Automatic annotation (TrEMBL):
Keywords: Signal. Residues 1-20 form the signal peptide. The lineage of its organism: Bacteria, Pseudomonadati, Bacteroidota, Chitinophagia, Chitinophagales. The keyword Signal applies. It comes from Panacibacter ginsenosidivorans. This is Carbohydrate binding family 9 domain-containing protein. InterPro entries: DUF5916. SUPFAM superfamilies: CBD9-like. It comes from the Bacteria. Residues 237-824 form the DUF5916 domain. The keyword Signal applies.
Length: 833
């Protein structure tokens, strides 16, 4: 603790001399138009003469600061009207063949296309922005830009606005037009406003990327280097009231073992999503009777770790516009509608005369609402609330056939509240509160955290941190409240060729954010040091090189009786990656982990397992992905030093075939063999903590096919087979000193052979702005055995022969905008076609 405090003081005393860009931002006067335009990609209307012109773009990749070539020059036009913003222009090329085009057929999939886009920082706080992009084939993608983290700017591509675009390819390049209604963007209420603005263009065949306002890649943040769109006057957002009613039909087939059960079941659902603009800045989103049955299947795995698997979120409501709720890493949206908290308790509640007929795997969401936005003064406010209905397991008496129900999940309310105030110099302070309230006797939970991010005036140094308090009400057997604390503090240099970050994390033994967030363990003090150096000027054979060095250490915050140990782990590693002039990427990694005291693998408090030190080596390569054929390969190995001969590897390979502009295929293969892996294993009826030396072999095989009919219609096919086998060779009993004692007993039931196979096939057609028809076929198959089968294709055959759960669904979503409906009722729309 004394050493880390001294280091923090030393770095805080470092001179804040800036290496940041000092050029003044470019300024563009805001021009207003009352003209009539047709958004088709052809700039032939007189109204475009009212627009301000943006030219002389500057490259930031591969050669930073270079002026764009005349034959590849860009001319863009920007103006606004009472209804919204117009952005158009021309991207010159030597010929049509120089333009990279690939039909994606879906929103937000830019693939290997060229593109151009405009970025608005409507509050001019250099922290929050809106991006709108179009490809030469007229496909759209958009995103919200959020405050940068240590990894750079954060882009939320799940956010979708409803706007119009068009593009046309010619012999000398391609032209484009956009209309972004004020309903598709958020801004303040000043009579005269100055917005941050920039435009960026990317040419995929050369990976050249340029911007209107120059970008220095050595400076922290993209929005910190924006230009100014000056003098927008008397812009007032329209009433933002939008509805997305849906109708879905499901047919499900599963060959139940009980012949009395129906193989086919069907379901018809209807519901509504509502988006309402409370004022210029704040929006209410609500989903009533939600239906998430068409989301992508989870990548299920065999979990041998002591921690739960963290799955990706695919439900639109919980991915779109949730950047405020992600602050502090306290919100894991999969908790809402996740596994019932007493699902596995059922097995301990029944006796030998009873059987479980039904035990739901997830809780059902009744409704969810969120409010988010930011005031003119920079105060961001977020509120999210969701309610799940009670879930019951059905128990049947095997003799009398009488059935009863056992509560596995009570009626539960989930709530997140966030206040985020932006400050000068791209700084901010935040307050986050998460709350889980459960009806009945189950405990409730609350976590409150304060965050701060402070940057110096020239945006070269950053100091930040978090202080959190957790409470579990009625968690203890006496019904008392358990309160825990956690903090994090970091300091670093964020601009320039040399950067660093030094941080400390600490939690006590009672802190937990598990009820609303993803949380693995508490009771630790962790220290990290990251240092990196960037070579961003192309020279010789390379475009850029990045090198970084990492050191980490972990201790228990408090000893766990009867163990007289606090040390957990320590290690260091070095990474380097490079992009060549031919747009290939290469990387290497090497690291060393010292001996470790693992307090989590035993699965019981007061025990630990002594692991040996190990050496890690990794290398990877990725070819130019703008080519019709591209691939990547990544090979990682970890070798134990004098520790049971332990060795593990991970080899990932992927390849992409772009057959033509409409059809593409991709294949990914992941191989993870582990020899002499040492880990906890469950032995039925044993009172000891059992470990095994085992051979673990995991194979993940994924094939994806994509065909696009038009820029608004496409079909995707994704098949994934996952295989993992655990072949136990020797068994051991964990001792109190962390060592293992050989156990001569062999437990064949501890072996595992696990297979998951999924197909997700999706046809999607955007038949009108914001309106979709989706047809989805999903197939799910599982195969489990205690007999280890090492042959891959034999496993695949056994999996395919197992019972298949097939689901076919049709969903129609229709987007309705109140103002559009009002205009159509009043008179035909002659303005925007």
């Amino acid at each position: 603790m004394k050493t880390s405090t001294a280091l923090f003081i030393f770095f805080l005393l470092v001179s804040f001399r800036s290496t940041a860009q000092t050029n003044k931002p470019r300024v563009l006067d805001a021009k207003r138009t009352a003209g009539i335009l047709k958004i088709d990609g052809v700039l032939n209307e007189e109204a475009w003469k009212d627009a301000a012109v943006m030219t002389d773009l500057v490259y930031f990749r591969p050669k930073m600061g270079a002026k764009e070539n005349f034959e590849n020059r860009t001319i863009a036009y920007l103006m606004y009207s009472d209804e919204g913003i117009y952005f158009g222009g021309f991207c010159y090329e030597r010929s049509k063949d120089s333009i990279a085009t690939q039909l994606m057929g879906v929103r937000d999939g830019y693939g290997t296309n060229d593109y151009i886009g405009v970025i608005f920082d409507t509050y001019n706080d250099k922290l929050n922005g809106f991006e709108y992009f179009v490809t030469p084939l007229g496909e759209q993608w958009d995103a919200k830009m959020n405050p940068p983290s240590m990894d750079g700017d954060m882009e939320d591509f799940s956010w979708n606005g409803v706007w119009k675009s068009g593009a046309v390819i010619t012999d000398s390049g391609w032209s484009f037009e956009m209309f972004i209604p004020f309903s598709a963007i958020r801004f303040g209420k000043k009579d005269v406003q100055d917005w941050g603005v920039n435009i960026t263009r990317r040419r995929r065949k050369t990976e050249e990327q340029n911007t209107w306002n120059p970008i220095d890649v050595n400076v922290n943040g993209f929005l910190t280097q924006e230009g100014i769109w000056k003098g927008l006057s008397n812009i007032k957002p329209p009433l933002r009231l939008q509805f997305s009613p849906y109708l879905s039909v499901y047919g499900n087939h599963y060959p139940y073992n009980n012949p009395a059960e129906k193989n086919w079941t069907s379901q018809v659902n209807g519901g509504l999503d509502v988006k309402y603009g409370i004022n210029q800045a704040f929006t209410l989103d609500a989903t009533l009777i939600p239906d998430f049955g068409q989301v992508q299947s989870d990548n299920q795995v065999l979990n041998l770790t002591p921690f739960e698997v963290k799955y990706n979120e695919y439900r639109n409501f919980f991915t779109e516009g949730t950047e405020l709720f992600s602050k502090g890493n306290l919100f894991y949206s999969r908790r809402i509608g996740g596994s019932p908290i007493h699902r596995y308790d059922v097995y301990n509640e029944i006796d030998s005369s009873e059987s479980i007929i039904k035990n739901p795997t997830e809780s059902k969401l009744i409704n969810a609402t969120k409010i988010s936005g930011r005031t003119q003064s920079g105060l961001g406010i977020g509120f999210l609330n969701a309610i799940t209905k009670p879930q019951y397991a059905t128990i049947e008496n095997t003799s009398t056939k009488e059935q009863s129900q056992l509560l596995t999940d009570p009626l539960t309310n989930y709530n997140v509240f966030v206040l985020d105030q932006t400050l000068k110099h791209n700084s901010s302070v935040s307050l986050i509160n998460t709350n889980v309230w459960r009806s009945g006797k189950d405990y409730d939970a609350n976590v409150t955290a304060g965050l701060f991010e402070l940057n110096n005036k020239k945006n070269t140094y950053n100091l930040g941190g978090k202080l959190a308090v957790s409470n579990r009400f009625g968690y203890l057997s006496e019904g008392k409240t358990e309160t825990g604390f956690s903090h994090e503090l970091h300091f670093g240099k964020t601009s320039g060729r040399f950067n660093f970050n030094l941080s400390q994390e600490r939690t006590d033994t009672k802190y937990s954010s598990d009820d609303m967030g993803y949380f693995t363990n508490n009771n630790y003090i962790n220290h990290y040091l990251w240092m990196g150096y960037h070579f961003n000027e192309p020279k010789g054979w390379y475009n850029r090189i990045n090198v970084n060095f990492n050191v980490n250490s972990s201790m228990l915050a408090k000893k766990i009786a009867p163990v007289d140990e606090k040390y957990q782990s320590a290690g260091f590693n070095v990474n380097a990656n490079v992009q060549t002039k031919k747009l290939w990427f290469f990387g290497i990694f090497t690291g060393y982990n010292f001996k470790q005291n693992d307090f989590y693998e035993p699965r019981q408090t007061g025990w630990f397992f002594k692991r040996g030190s190990n050496i890690m080596v990794e290398a990877w390569a990725e070819s130019n992905d703008s080519k019709k054929y591209s691939f990547f390969i990544d090979a990682f190995t970890k070798t134990g030093i004098n520790f049971y001969g332990q060795f593990s590897a991970n080899i990932s390979m992927g390849q992409n075939f772009r057959i033509n502009n409409k059809l593409s295929l991709s294949h990914n293969l992941n191989l993870s063999p582990q020899l002499n892996n040492m880990g906890y294993t469950y032995v039925d009826g044993s009172s000891d903590i059992n470990f095994a030396k085992r051979k673990v072999n995991t194979v993940e095989n994924t094939l994806s096919v994509k065909y696009s009919f038009t820029n608004k219609m496409g079909i995707t096919f994704r098949a994934r087979h996952y295989l993992s086998t655990v072949d136990n060779k020797d068994f051991f009993i964990l001792q109190h000193d962390g060592t293992l004692k050989p156990n001569p007993d062999f437990h064949p039931d501890a072996n595992q052979n696990v297979n998951f196979f999924n197909i997700d096939m999706v046809y999607s057609w955007q038949f009108a702005p914001g309106s979709f028809i989706n047809i989805v076929w999903k197939n799910a198959t599982q195969y489990f055995s205690n007999d280890v089968e090492s042959r891959y294709f034999e496993n695949f055959k056994n999996t395919i022969k197992s019972d298949n759960n097939n689901n076919l669904s049709l969903k129609v979503i229709y987007f309705l905008d109140y103002l559009t409906l009002k205009q159509h009722v009043a008179k035909p729309d002659k303005n925007l076609k």
